[in-house]
Write a structure and sequence with these properties.
Strand content: 5-15%
CATH architecture of the largest domain: 3-Layer(aba) Sandwich
Largest sheet: 8 strands, mixed
Distance between the termini: 63 Å
Number of strands: 15
Radius of gyration: 24 Å
Number of domains: 3
Mean pLDDT: 92
CATH superfamily of the largest domain: Type I PLP-dependent aspartate aminotransferase-like (Major domain)
């Protein structure tokens, strides 16, 4: 390899060019810092800075005594949803029940075309968004829009963070969030959770370790269903109050459907924050729209990142969202859907309990989480042989050691829930794993 340069930027550019051209292959070791510094006749710190930039850009990884290694491009992560046409009863997709989704085309009002220069947020939609955000956001907040919750997370993090910056997230974590962080080159700090969400001591450890942002789900956490109670939210606010410079990003994706009260972790001293409320679960995944309440600086950075590309969220989508949010009939249907989802989750929990299978006491969201003591794949395969498709929990892991099943209950009827519970018990018994879960 022929590395050149007399400055950190020049050394970085030289190595980067060779990685992108294929001259340096994934897994190949770069010269030790001292050796390259002597070869180029420059200070060792100059080479160290160049290597640090390569690491932050995801082009190489520093591996202690082994040295700095060229990394392979990240593989595509697991996605929500599942392929159509499976012969199995699909409980893996994470989808809402289509019967509860409104027909948005029928709701679209007749509006004059919007042109360049029109306000990016429709005034009616902003009023409806503020009616929902006002009780939960600090005074003086700004309203913004994004193309869904994951788009909001990506743009807000990109507005404040650099590649390589560490983000504290729940472990296990939502697939969309994990994929976004990995694609952007952010490091993850795993925060342990229980049925009440993030554990304060674990969050404190992540922040002390240098996390520059916190991404958390206040209710109906995917995949576990955990929701913050008032006491846990207060404890997390106290932890975050010691780090006012940290960006706090709240993904309240289930807001319209949740049966749990919203408990805020955004304190008066939090400088950078955003509360994201997607409409996908309640009005349909294809709507691709989320509303945000955020501080003024975050709003400005979000607009800046939106302006050069898409510019704004389509006003056709805004019209559909405003029509749905402003319809008493649609919102009554959404409320009924939320109660139905909670009941379906409770039904499966009860059926499992009758078979001696205990699950965490969380009953909100579209999914039920079954913790496991070991790799989920044998159980996933055993259930597939019995006609069920479920999602193995390892794909949600921020760090190795997370094992479980995520079972989407949104379209699971009572009879099927009881049949699944029996099949699951038989599968666990066949693997000698039922006792490890504990009998109720």
């Amino acid at each position: 390899m022929k590395i050149t340069g007399q400055t950190a930027s020049a050394v970085f550019d030289s190595i980067r060019a060779q990685i992108l051209s294929g001259a340096l292959a994934p897994g190949q070791l770069l010269p030790p810092v001292r050796e390259l510094a002597q070869r180029l006749d420059i200070n060792r710190n100059t080479v160290a800075v160049a290597y640090k930039r390569l690491d932050a850009a995801g082009l190489a990884q520093t591996q202690g005594r082994r040295g700095t290694v060229v990394t392979a491009p990240p593989a595509p992560g697991a996605q929500e949803g599942s392929a159509a046409g499976s012969a199995l009863h699909d409980l893996s997709s994470g989808n809402p029940d289509p019967q509860w989704l409104p027909e948005l085309r029928a709701l679209l009002p007749a509006r004059a075309p919007r042109l360049y220069g029109a306000p990016t947020i429709d005034p009616l939609l902003e009023r409806l968004a503020r009616a929902q955000l006002d009780p939960d956001c600090p005074p003086g907040y700004a309203v913004e829009l994004s193309h869904g919750a994951v788009d909001a997370i990506e743009r807000v993090l990109g507005g404040w963070l650099l590649p390589g910056d560490r983000v504290a997230v729940e472990n296990p974590c939502f697939l969309g969030s994990l994929n976004t962080l990995r694609a952007a080159g952010h490091a993850t700090a795993a925060v342990a959770i229980d049925a009440q969400g993030m554990l304060p001591a674990s969050l404190a450890q992540a922040l002390q370790g240098g996390a520059r942002a916190v991404l958390l789900t206040p209710r109906a956490h995917n995949p576990t269903g955990a929701s913050l109670g008032s006491r846990r939210a207060r404890e997390l606010r106290q932890v975050l109050a010691r780090h006012p410079e940290v960006l706090v990003l709240v993904d309240d994706h289930f807001a319209l459907l949740s049966q749990q009260p919203y408990c805020s972790v955004i304190g008066a001293g939090t400088r950078r924050w955003a509360l994201v409320r997607s409409l996908s679960k309640a009005l349909g995944p294809d709507l691709r729209l989320a509303v945000l309440g955020c501080d003024a600086d975050t709003a400005a950075r979000l607009r800046l990142r939106m302006a050069p590309g898409t510019g704004w969220v389509s006003h056709l989508l805004q019209d559909a969202a405003a029509a749905a949010l402003g319809s008493a009939r649609v919102m009554a249907r959404v409320a009924k859907a939320g109660r139905d989802y909670a009941q379906r989750c409770r039904t499966l929990q009860q059926a499992l309990a009758e078979q001696g299978i205990a699950t965490p006491a969380v009953m909100d969201g579209l999914n039920l989480w079954l913790p496991l003591p070991a790799d989920s794949q044998p159980l996933v395969l055993a259930l597939a042989q019995r006609g069920w498709q479920v999602r193995g929990g390892e794909v949600f892991a921020v760090q190795p050691g997370v094992h479980g099943l995520r079972i989407t209950t949104a379209m699971l009827g009572e009879a099927d829930a009881r049949r699944l519970a029996v099949d699951l018990r038989h599968a666990l018994e066949g693997q000698g794993a039922l006792g490890a879960l504990g009998r109720t």
